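Memo to structure team: turn this sequence into structure tokens by end of day. - J.P.
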Amino acid sequence: MTNFSSLRDLPEPSVAPHLYTEALKHARYNRYSNILPLDATRVKIDTKGTLLETSYINANYVDVGFRDFIVSQAPISEDISAFWYMVFTNDIKSIFMLTSLKEGEKVKATRYWPSRGTIEFPRVGITIVPMKVDTLTPDVYITELLLIRGTTMKRVTHYHYVGWPDFGVPRTYHSFERMLTKANRSADVLVHCSAGCGRAGVFCSVYRALITGETIKTAVEAVRRCRQGAVQTSSQYRFASTIVDRVRSLSRPPTPPRPLCTTRRSTPIRVSGSE
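Reply from structure team:
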């Protein structure tokens, strides 16, 4: 396995601010000042017909093989309306949340979805109704949501994985593998952790490697061309490599997505990081 430190990446915002111009202009919408979306692949919100102040949101289209996932930070209080409008307008069917709301004393995410009772977001005209709460595994909770805007209704499945600490690795392979299968069977997908970088990067890299047949090194570097800094630690990289090998050895890698899942909106840029 390639040494983690030798993986190529794009330069950070402090080194190459020209790659992150919109994110730097909208600092108050970023959960972390050093985890920013690249201009080249960022999700742009069409604010027409809303009361949103900006098209900016901390999210990127990420090339995971035959299609893109949206990868974002965990919504902050200032942009929950924008987050749901992004979900609605991009026709997202599944959200994979890979962080707890708090880890120890640190807040990692703001609760943005209902488990009971309707929530309204008047700035974007969206009402969210929880339809069903269930579990996929003991540490993955599922909430079926109905999004309503005007006369249009859309169903979204929210998967909340609480068994994966920040900068760490999952406690078991089972939950991770189940979520990979769910992602592969879903149409458009959004993935986030706290920053939308480490855990989300692992999920996208593993998915891409299994779908394309690439090495985990190639997959991580491809994801990083869309979302800088994806896969943050050597332990995360080892876990990604191990689970790719594990799934391949069991002869049950995910099958390529159906044609309805081939949405491509990313324009990855060349990795020019360290060799």
